[in-house]
Amino acid sequence: MNQKRLADMDLLVVSHGYKHFVKSQVDVLAEYVNSVTVCVRYNWFADVASRLPIDAGAGFGKDAKIARKNVPDNVDVIEVPLAYLPVDLHRDHLLGQQHARKVRKKLEEHPVSFDLIHCHITWTSGYVGARLKQELDIPYVLTVHANRNWFEQQLESDNDRLKTAWEDADRLIRVNRSDRSKLEAYNDDVVYVPNGYDTDTFERISTAVARERLGIDQEPPVVFALGTLKPRKGFQHLMRAMTRVHESKPNARLVIGGQGGMRGELETLAAELGIEDRTSLLGYLEPDVLNDWMNATDVFVLPSYSESFGVVQLEAMACGTPVVATENGGSEEVVTSDEYGLLVEGPEAHDELAGAIETALDREWDEDAIESYANEYTWETVCEQIADLYVDVLDEHRSAPVAPTP
């Protein structure tokens, strides 16, 4: 398809952040279009709370939501402050109206006439997109990002405005195949487009070089995991599985990267299990350090209860690293062959999880094949699909019959 037809397009993105997967996608799509305006919602209460001795707003403030570095020249980020308590029930129904109102007010001051809206996350960004579609008479695309449990909660929700976001989209994008049929009950135009990984951050280097950079021993087996330190990610079960791994590989080291409220609990658990001397909780990792750990490890483990896709697995595979993951709604669509990794039933199956880790540590993996598979999911490749989708949606909108004036 001739994606050069997008060269004059001005794209509006409504999202809950301009970091990580949204930024990576937007920055690649910016190469196809004239301009991208990204309206990012954040919780101003979280910024206030960050100055107080409380942790209620961690992760919801401006700095946590918006990346300031390496922004393409044709990408403009607009900050959209919302006011809500993180546990406020009004988020379920009233926050969408507040979000829509604030975005409209911001756009009144922004001298761009948009051709298409792309929203990320159904509630509340998708609802904003549905409202703007009607007001601006331009097409609207929604990517549904939600882990399996969150998505099931949305399906069962009594929030009609949330369902409106699905129904009014000109395309609904789901990042896994298994949920498409569930969304087709609300919209006839549901497509699968996976997440991608950032080739600027993740590249394959030798394990020896990576370990030398990190200053760690070359010999001991390393098991690496990454994610927000919360119960859903299953790190507590990975620690228990490692006690079984240590029966056959007593010097195996567990390394976990990421921040979160569970850190103290995990540190206590490691001490209770007697593995604190072989377990490291690293906190936040800068991109270059993260790439080194992805290459330094012998196996990457995602012991999660629930995912939508699990792009972190692709980031490991891009470094030629095999993956052990649980069946969590997303990993099944990434670990599609035992050439790339192993799947286990769930995080609480400690013996099965330990057995898969031991198998992965003992196997001679084809690192070239693993890296080659991951390269099918670069953001450059994924954004070609999204650009094609934009062309289709714009063509449909331009050819749609004009409603007669009453």
Describe the protein in words:
The strands form two sheets. The protein has a seven-stranded parallel sheet with strand order 3-2-1-4-5-6-7, with helices on both faces. It has 16 helices and 13 strands. Residues 50-57 have low confidence and may be disordered. It has two domains: 3-196 and 378-394, 3-Layer(aba) Sandwich (Rossmann fold); 207-376, Rossmann fold (3-Layer(aba) Sandwich), CATH 3.40.50. It has helices at residues 20-29, 44-49, 62-65, 95-108, 122-136, 148-156, 160-167, 180-183, 207-214, 235-248, 263-273, 287-296, 311-317, 350-362, 367-374, 379-399, and strands spanning 10-15, 35-43, 75-82, 116-120, 140-144, 171-174, 190-192, 222-226, 253-257, 279-283, 299-302, 323-326, 341-344. With 406 residues, the chain is of the alpha/beta class. The protein is globular and about 70 Å long. Helix 5 packs across helix 7.
Task: Summarize the model shown.
By secondary structure, the protein is α/β, with parallel strands linked by helices. The chain has helices at residues 20-29, 44-49, 62-65, 95-108, 122-136, 148-156, 160-167, 180-183, 207-214, 235-248, 263-273, 287-296, 311-317, 350-362, 367-374, 379-399, and strands spanning 10-15, 35-43, 75-82, 116-120, 140-144, 171-174, 190-192, 222-226, 253-257, 279-283, 299-302, 323-326, 341-344. Helix 1 (20-29) crosses helix 16 (379-399), helix 5 (122-136) crosses helix 7 (160-167) and helix 10 (235-248) crosses helix 14 (350-362).
